Prior knowledge:
It is built from eight helices and four strands.
Amino acid sequence: MRKIIKGNEPEQLTKWMRANNKLRYGSLPPEERQSVRAACIKEQFGLCAYCCQSISPKAAHNEHVESQDRAPARTLDFTNIVASCESRTNCGHRRKTKRLDLTPFMDECETELKFYLNGLVEGTTARAKASIEALNLGHSEESNRGLIGRRRAMVEILIYDARLKPDELMQIEDKELLEMLAEELESPVAGNLQAFSPVLVNVIRQLLP
């Protein structure tokens, strides 16, 4: 995960809520749902809120972090909505309505999840482990081979783009070089971050003293 800082709700959503008494997400028309999704994707720099693969308005869905059945009064609360990928094996669709004690709105989502260059992820706290399993983010090869493989392949591409090899990255002792690489990966290009770049940033942060 990468921490998400929520901005203002889209104007279309605001106008619709002012004009309607049925203030529940189930009544929200497709055009307004699309505006919510587009706003979320923009503030997430084009990445899924959970797995950090690239998404687009046509290949994502609006995901309620505090699920609709648990918090019916927050179904139209923009601060409770993120954009999730459409994978059926992980993230929003897989999680369904399970409670998440560690969410993308928390600073700790970037530190309590520990990623490895082989594509696996480990939770360093009980809540992180529970959230990883609820979202099926790949804590073991058997849990989600597809996501683990895509994450590993994309991270290797990011490393090669930096003119390095995975084994060379682990041997770098130059703190400034690592920090520069992390800063580059954290800098959006045309409003988007590269797919799975927060994963490599997580690995680099582990290498920094």
